[in-house]
Amino acid sequence: MYPVTKRGERVILREISVADVDAVKSVCCHPSVIRNLGFAPRGRDEASAVVARAIASARRVPRTEYLLLVVLEDRDEAVGVMRLTLDLDCGAEFGVAVDPPHSAQIWGAVREGGAYQEHGREGTRLLLALGFDDLGLHRLWGAEGLDSATPERPVLHAGMGRERIIRDHVFTRGGWRDTAVYSILRQEWELVRARENGVVRL
What is the pLDDT of residue 155? Predict the structure, then answer.
C-alpha cells in the first residue's frame, strides 16, 4: 500500500519524504524521546538514514514496513515517528507458513509533553486503523520499557492491553530494563471503534 495518508482530528500520519530529514531529527533526536527509548542522541546523519530507510521500504513490493511521520494537521509540524512492520515469520517456530501475514509489530516515538501525548494517542489510533482497516490484519502488538517517563502510555488509550512482561529484556543506561508487550486483536479494535461511534456503550 502506497502512499499512506491517514487523517485524524489533530494529526496526520503520512509517508516520509526526502524533505523530512530535519523533521525526523526533531523527533528522534529530541532529549525527551531519547530518554524514554534508551539510546544515545542521534544527529542529522542518523536522521538521514531513517528517511532513506523509510523511502526504500515504501517502494518494496510487497511492502512489509510502514515508517511514517506524525504531523500536526494544521501546519505539518512533526511531532512523532511511527512504524508498522509485518510479522513475516510469525508461524516459523511452529513450522507453519503464514501467507499473507496476519500480524504486525507497531512502534512509535512522540515528543514529550501534555499536548504531544494527545497527538501520540491519536497517531497510535491511526496506525491501528492502517493495520486493521487498510491492511486487513488480525493482531497488532508492540513493546515498551516499563521505566518510561510517560505516565499515560498511548497504547493503553488506543485499546491495547498488556499481554506479558519480559524481565531484564534490555540493558540500557547502566541497568537492565523490563519490557511490557501490548496487543490488540481485530475484534477488540472493532469494539473500540463501535464505542467511539456510539454504537456500543459500556
Answer: 60
> Could you say which DSSP state residue 131 is in?
I
Inform me whether the pLDDT recorded for 51 exceeds 70: yes
> What per-residue string of b and e applies to 56-73 under the rule 16 or more CB within 10 Å gives b?
ebbeeeeeebbbbbbbee
Which CB contacts under 8 angstroms, 24+ apart, belong to 158-167? 158/121, 158/124, 158/125, 158/128, 158/184, 158/192, 159/128, 159/184, 159/188, 159/189, 159/191, 159/192, 160/128, 160/184, 161/188
Domains and CATH numbers, the chain: 5-142 (3.40.630.30)
* pLDDT at residue number 103: 93
Please tell me whether the peptide bond between 62 and the residue prior to it is cis, using omega within 30 degrees of 0.
yes
Contact 180, 165 (CB under 8 A): yes
Neighbours of 146 (CB within 10 A): 12
Q: pLDDT tens for residues 63-86? A: 999 999 999 988 888 888 999 999
What is the value of pTM for the model shown?
0.82
pLDDT at position 92: 45
C-alpha cell at 114: 501534555
- Given a contact cutoff of 8 angstroms between Cβ atoms, the answer to whether 150 and 121 are in contact is no
- Cα distances from 200 to residues 30, 105, 143, 150, 195, in angstroms, run 40, 28, 29, 30, 5
Residue 169 and residue 186: Cα distance in Å, rounded? 28
